[in-house]
């Protein structure tokens, strides 16, 4: 009798009703972050409201296409995991600088296209570096991702950065109400509802926010029904050396961040990321970034808030996130729908964000629980990496006097912490240790790190050999 192979949860296709609900939840979780990048860059360049609206719809369209490439995949493009794609914040400062110093949007898009091509070419190289991401490094990076995102949720809960009523008690009360709804649904509701606790919290929060005047749907009436982003709408791209160099630095940062996110999703879904699948995921990032330069938007990367949502809901199907990509394409083609989603008040998103981003940090702690911290320097690796990653989060202007390329790398707590964790893991767990007098004659084999165990190191191998001899 033939035995049907069990489908991995990542490849399962939920019923349409669940697919739509879970997919909408992912869209709402990332929407504010997705539209923030075009708003910041367009606002700094003093673009007209019409041009700003065009940037947003173009961004949503390419977000959807990028997500479909990553989740569904074709040939060697796409990690085929539940990964949501969006514009990277690491590129905001360089793009503002390029756009406001004479280059304009054509110079931004020229540098974005070159950066995307570079990511495609460098993807196999990063894939071969996967052995330098043991649980010690990945757990630390996931922890840093979650903690560094918490201030974003805090800003939303207070009303949104720059809001006239920022920090008003009514904003925090609404965020706390949404948080309570999310927790209540997750704890007491039936299984299906508990998996869409974030969506339920946002819907209930919006229903409460409308009569209390937290939101205004006036922009919905002004939005067009249909809008299509055409290639090079703002002119043919130009390729300025300084702009290209700064965007190549951003490309390395986003590749590092995406690597951490892909490994995190692999941990959460039970489908470990291998060198080939990592290369495929990064290659999809590069292709999406090239499409961004062509279709009037910006570089793309994996969104960590949706990683947290996967961990919180335990819905591991990549087809759920693919459905989210389809919804984003619709939002990009139907600006009126996008305006409805954009009307959700920041405190509602803040209440939900506290749960999602906290879940990312907790997932990092769960990964670190696999690491052996006895008789080695792994505690030092985690401590210093988290400290370096939190510096730009707690003190945003700490690197203000440094060169632009340095700020591009270190102003992102995620990339700063990730690079520190990789470097310290190499220093303490890959370089040969200096043997002490009592250890010089012992026969010490390769450390657990070399054997593929979590957070090993030469010193740990010495301790094990010593215990065996006793």
Compact summary:
The protein is mainly alpha-helical and 470 residues long. It is built from 19 helices and two strands.
Give an overview of the whole structure:
The protein is mainly alpha-helical. Helices cover 66% and strands 1% of the residues. The protein has a two-stranded antiparallel ribbon with strand order 1-2. The C terminus is likely disordered.
Low-confidence stretches: 436-470
Series of H and E elements: HHEHHHHHHHHHEHHHHHHHH
Distance between the termini: 54 Å
Strand content: under 5%
Task: List descriptors.
single chain, 470 residues, mainly alpha, two-stranded antiparallel ribbon, 2 strands, disordered C terminus
What's the topology here?
Elements: H1 16-44, H2 49-71, E1 85-87, H3 92-100, H4 104-127, H5 135-157, H6 169-188, H7 191-195, H8 197-209, H9 218-222, H10 241-269, H11 275-294, E2 300-302, H12 304-313, H13 318-333, H14 335-342, H15 346-368, H16 378-394, H17 404-410, H18 413-429, H19 458-469
Antiparallel strand pairs: 1-2
Helix pairs in contact: 1-2, 1-3, 1-13, 2-11, 2-13, 3-4, 4-10, 4-11, 5-10, 5-15, 5-16, 5-18, 6-8, 6-15, 8-15, 10-11, 10-12, 10-17, 10-18, 12-15, 13-14, 16-18
């Amino acid at each position: 009798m033939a035995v049907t192979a069990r489908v991995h949860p990542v490849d399962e296709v939920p019923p349409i009703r669940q697919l739509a609900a879970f997919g909408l939840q992912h869209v709402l979780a990332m929407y504010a972050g997705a539209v923030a990048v075009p708003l910041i860059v367009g606002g700094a360049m003093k673009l007209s409201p019409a041009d700003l609206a065009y940037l947003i719809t173009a961004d949503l369209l390419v977000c959807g296409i990028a997500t479909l490439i990553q989740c569904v995949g074709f040939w060697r493009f796409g990690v085929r995991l539940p990964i949501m794609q969006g514009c990277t914040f690491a590129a905001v400062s360089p793009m503002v600088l390029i756009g406001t110093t004479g280059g304009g949007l054509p110079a931004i898009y020229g540098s974005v296209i070159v950066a995307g091509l570079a990511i495609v070419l460098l993807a196999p190289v990063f894939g071969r570096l996967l052995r330098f991401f043991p649980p010690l490094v990945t757990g630390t990076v996931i922890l840093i991702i979650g903690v560094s995102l918490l201030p974003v949720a805090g800003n939303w809960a207070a009303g949104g950065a720059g809001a006239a009523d920022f920090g008003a008690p009514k904003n925090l009360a609404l965020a706390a109400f949404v948080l309570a709804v999310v927790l209540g649904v997750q704890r007491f509701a039936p299984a299906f509802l508990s998996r869409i606790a974030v969506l339920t919290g946002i819907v209930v929060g919006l229903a409460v926010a409308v009569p209390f005047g937290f939101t205004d749907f006036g922009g919905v009436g002004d939005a067009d029904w249909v809008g299509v982003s055409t290639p090079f709408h703002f002119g043919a791209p130009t390729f300025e050396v300084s702009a290209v160099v700064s965007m190549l630095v951003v490309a390395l940062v986003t590749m590092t961040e995406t690597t951490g996110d892909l490994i995190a999703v692999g941990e959460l879904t039970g489908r470990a990321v291998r060198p080939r699948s990592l290369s495929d995921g990064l290659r999809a990032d590069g292709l999406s970034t090239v499409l961004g330069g062509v279709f009037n938007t910006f570089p793309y990367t994996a969104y960590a808030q949706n990683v947290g949502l996967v961990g919180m809901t335990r819905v591991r199907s990549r087809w759920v996130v693919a459905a989210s990509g389809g919804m984003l394409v619709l939002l990009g083609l139907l600006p009126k729908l996008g305006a409805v989603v954009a009307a959700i008040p920041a405190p509602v998103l803040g209440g939900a964000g506290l749960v999602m981003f906290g879940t990312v940090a907790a997932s990092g702690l769960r990964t670190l629980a696999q690491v052996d911290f006895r008789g080695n320097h792994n505690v030092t690796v985690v401590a210093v990496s988290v400290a370096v990653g939190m510096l730009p989060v707690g003190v945003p202007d700490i690197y203000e006097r440094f060169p632009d390329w340095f700020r591009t790398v270190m102003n992102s707590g995620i990339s700063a912490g990730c690079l520190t964790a990789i470097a310290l893991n190499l220093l303490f767990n890959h370089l040969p240790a200096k043997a002490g007098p009592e250890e010089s004659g012992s026969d010490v084999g390769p450390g657990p790190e070399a054997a593929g165990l979590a957070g090993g190191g030469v010193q740990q191998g010495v301790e094990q050999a010593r215990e065996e001899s006793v």
